[in-house]
Amino acid sequence: MGIDCYKLEDKFVWDFWYARQGDEHHAFYLQYPREGDPEYIHSRQSVGHAVSKDLLHWEEKPTALQPIPGTWNDQGIATGSVVFKDGVWNMLYTGNSSRDGGGIGLARSDDLTNWTKVGEAPVFSKPDPFIANWDGEEIQASPLADPYVYPEAMDGFYYMVINAQEVNAPQGSRGCQLMLRSRNLTDWEAHKIAAYPRKFERMETSQIWSRNGLWYMYFGGVTGDEKFENWIYVSESFDGPYEARPWSRISLPGDCYFYIAKVVEDTNGQDVFLANKAIESLLGGYRMVYGEDGSVILAERGR
């Protein structure tokens, strides 16, 4: 079974994302006090921070980012992504607002510990739609949350995939992955729709990575009847289309429950699957095994 490698007695923790500096892995995650009002657990959360060298043993650090009263992001912060550019760490995060729908904000840090929000507004607002192409057709895709920025620039652009919905699609089938691009991380434009299976209401907290000549996309799929599933889609190109394979619905060995995960490369170059056990803890006991056909299975990873 998976190793319950990070849990806090005084906080709920969920939706982790990661950055690596030297031999240290930095985890950022959503947190909310256990003694807090449960009504606000998904609208007043802040961003926690922990550090590890082996992806199994973690040390809690001070809170990285939190809502600030009187600003556009005066309510909770949801899932984000960290990328290193021009000597500075950049965090794109989902910011909630009491004024409007909020948006995707930007914060910067020199050391991955002390973060400062950039600007007095989000870099783009949600749910203002982007027009993007899918299968030869232009559709309106409204971003919701969970930006993931691929950590390396390609052709001078940084590419983001984000949980979005087609504006005119029926409920239960409108979830898609909108891909945006930017040269400076502040000005974003539509690139295309990277995935649109027409079977999810939302495609949450995605991530893309490459291995053995293929591109993979993990996401948490939420169906129209609010079932939460974990999927890995595949593409021959970084910008899709990402599509399901027979093995694409992912489960942990022993059918241990989880929802939302990220893939992190350890110091040996091995892909490790770090999964969230609901809002309770981080499960760190899995390595990814790639088949010759591109398939992925999860195997136990010992201490």
Q: What string gives the helices and strands in order?
A: EEEEEEEEEEEEEEEEEEEEEE
Mean pLDDT: 96
Tally of strands: 22
Number of helices: 0
**Given the helix and strand composition, which structural class is it?**
mainly beta
* Biggest beta sheet summary: 5 strands, antiparallel
Helix content: under 10%
State Rg. 18 Å
Distance between the termini: 12 Å
Strand content: over 45%
Question: Any chance you could write out the topology, listing elements then pairs?
Answer:
Blueprint: E1 4-6, E2 11-21, E3 24-33, E4 46-52, E5 59-65, E6 77-85, E7 88-95, E8 103-109, E9 116-117, E10 124-125, E11 130-134, E12 137-149, E13 158-166, E14 175-182, E15 189-195, E16 202-211, E17 214-222, E18 228-235, E19 261-265, E20 271-277, E21 281-290, E22 296-300
Antiparallel strand pairs: 1-21, 2-3, 3-4, 4-5, 6-7, 7-8, 8-9, 8-10, 11-12, 12-13, 13-14, 14-15, 16-17, 17-18, 19-20, 20-21, 21-22
Write structural notes for this entry.
The chain is mainly beta and 303 residues long. Helix content is 0%, strand content 53%. It has no helices and 22 strands. Strands 1, 19, 20, 21 and 22 form a five-stranded antiparallel β-sheet that branches. A hairpin with an 8-residue loop joins strand 13 and strand 14.
